[in-house]
Specification:
Layout: E1 4-12, H1 16-19, H2 22-35, E2 40-48, E3 55-62, E4 65-72, E5 77-84, H3 90-100, E6 105-113
Helix pairs in contact: 2-3
């Protein structure tokens, strides 16, 4: 029994225009949450480039956890993180984002969270 499901995408060859469109990325992430059956609590976005390399970050806070996207526009890279628990469908969230952004070159990592919670050892 796990407490949630987490999917991470490291995306490559993402167009600069996609990596800097924080408004569109936030809209896609929020819609992906709905598609996955999650409840959006709050959203935020920020476009980098004033004192740092071009890119942006978006965050969709969910009752079931979160979806985040962080981009590195000059490198064509995007990091996507979706973690949900309960009945929300993390796979549906990620598939929606991949389809809407036409992502083709990525490394995907999946994991269940707190699988062995009853045998966890506290580290101090």
């Amino acid at each position: 029994m796990s407490r949630g499901y987490h999917i991470l995408l490291d995306c490559y060859d993402v167009p600069h225009s996609v990596c800097t469109d924080d408004k569109r990325l936030l809209q896609i992430a929020a819609k992906a949450a709905q598609v996955g059956g999650a409840t959006v609590i709050n959203t935020m976005r920020y476009r980098f480039g004033h004192n740092s390399p071009a890119g942006c970050a978006v965050l969709v806070m969910l009752d079931e956890s979160h979806i985040s996207i962080h981009t590195y526009a000059d490198e064509g890279k995007m990091a996507i993180d979706a973690f949900t628990c309960g009945s929300a469908d993390t796979r549906a969230v990620i598939e929606y984002i991949k389809k809407r952004l036409c992502l083709r070159n990525y490394v995907e990592k999946e994991m269940e969270r707190f699988v062995d919670a009853e045998v966890a050892v506290a580290v101090s």
